[in-house]
Amino acid sequence: MPSASQVAAVVVGGDDITNLKERDVMVESVTGRLMSIKETAGYYDPLQYPLLFPYGSYGWDLNTRSINGKKITCREFYSYMFQMRECYDSIVLRAGRLTQQFAVDNCVKMQASNLRWVALNQDTIRADLYKGLEDSYNTGEHNTELYFHHQSVGSPRNMNQRYQDTMALVHKFGKPDIFLTMTCNLSWSEIVAELLPGYQPHDRPDLLTRVFHARIEELKKDVLERNVLGKVVAYVYVIEFQKRGLPHVHMLLILDQSDKLATPDDYDKIVRAEIPDQQQESELHKRILKHMIHNPCGVQNPHSPCMKQGSCKKGFPK
């Protein structure tokens, strides 16, 4: 079972736009009549989350616009709501599991908004295939399935394009030299400093992802601009969310020919298989012991996070 408090959503028919079901949210009017409301209505948020919007604040709808008349997307609206401000104490960021539910709910709303755009703009995104469609129609193939834009994340066309782009990099620059992984650490000072008393990191998924994104940008500067691992001529990475909902990044680096790892000494400069010397590298030694060594558990430390039903779930001590 999960060790952290998480909220997930199941989207019925989400793999097919034509079968995507609308929200089954019913409200009772003052006259006692039941009525269904859509998630694209501005009064969906205050009706669904009265604790977060006690004054009935109007939410996002399809016609929401900024002061200068520019249309605001679903993502832009809720990104604004989840922002942290020094002089404003947001109820949305203080609700614990309800904050998680609100974030997941609106994430699904954003995905539905993107799918709705795809369904209503088939002529636009099929423009580069009109000739092929005409030929198929003339040969008797009347396939009317919806076609996804190449920027629709998770769609077959998007996945295929990303794969082809990656293979093109390997074809031109050669095989990757370094497989680099960075995980989100709940003890990062930026996260700990913003948590309210009694709050856990999983109560603020927005904070975790925002800090992780900032750390990734700094990592990219170290690797791509400062060349701490050598000159990088090409790279590709993917961000995943696994185990307690924490993000981590897998990055493949292709180094310049002059910086490629060719000898055991080259690998020893960037790879360690032993604990660093405490006298020569005290800071690295301290971090390795803190983040990469299994701390005492069992009888010595029965409150260790790895303990489950009186024993270590990792099987320590070995």
Structural class, from secondary structure content? alpha+beta
Percentage of residues in helical conformation: 25-40%
Low-confidence stretches: none
User: Treating each run of at least 4 consecutive H or I residues as one helix, how many helices?
Assistant: 10
Cα-atom radius of gyration: 25 Å
How many β-strand stretches? 7
Q: Report the sheet with the most strands, covering strand number, pairing sense and barrel closure.
A: 3 strands, antiparallel
Walk across the major sheet and give the strand order. Answer: 3-5-4
Strand fraction equals 5-15%
Morphology call: globular
Whole-number count of domains: 3
Mean pLDDT: 84
SSE series: EEHHHHHHEHHEEHHEE
- Termini separation comes to 24 Å
